Automatic annotation (TrEMBL):
Organism: Punica granatum
PANTHER family listed in its UniProt record: EXPRESSED PROTEIN-RELATED, OS03G0731800 PROTEIN
Pfam families: Nucleotid_trans (PF03407)
Descriptive protein name: Nucleotide-diphospho-sugar transferase domain-containing protein
Keyword Transmembrane: yes
Amino acid sequence: MDISKTSILNLTILISLLVTGLLYIFLISPSSTSLFLPRTAFSACSGHNKSAESAAHEAQPQDDLEHALRKASMANRTVIIAIVNQAYADPANSEDSDKTMLDLFLESFWLGEGTRKLLDHVLVVAMDRTAYMMCKFRRLNCYRLVTEGVDFAGEKLYMSEDFIKMM
C-alpha cells in the first residue's frame, strides 16, 4: 500500500490539532471543570470552605427572585435593577407619545456606546400585573413583586405615604 507524504502530513496535522484541542479543553480552559463535573462536586473538592450540602443548596434557586437574579447576573454577580409599575410601563399612560418610561430606559441601552450587552443583565422588578406583562412582552428578565395592602399600579407622588411604603 503506497501512502504519499502529503497524506502522512495531513494525518499528522489532524492528530496534532485534535490533541491540542483536547489539551485545551481538559487543562487550560477555565470552564473545563464545569464541563465534566457538576458545580457542587467542583465546589466541594476545590478547597472552598462550603460543605457539599450547602453548595448543592446554593446551586438550586429557592424562589422566583433568586432564579431571576441568577438569570440576569453577570459573571461577577452584577445586576442592573429597574423597578417599574403600570404608570411607567403601560403605553396608555404616556401622554405625549407611544413611548413609556420603560421604553426610554431600554432605548438608552441600545443607543449608548458599548451598553447593548448590559441589557441582558437588567432585572425589571414589576410592582403590578400590567408592568409584569409589559416586561414579559419585551422578553426581559422580569420579577413580579407581590405586595399586600398597597396598590402600586398607579403613579405615586414623591415622599407621599404610598411612595414611602413602596420604598
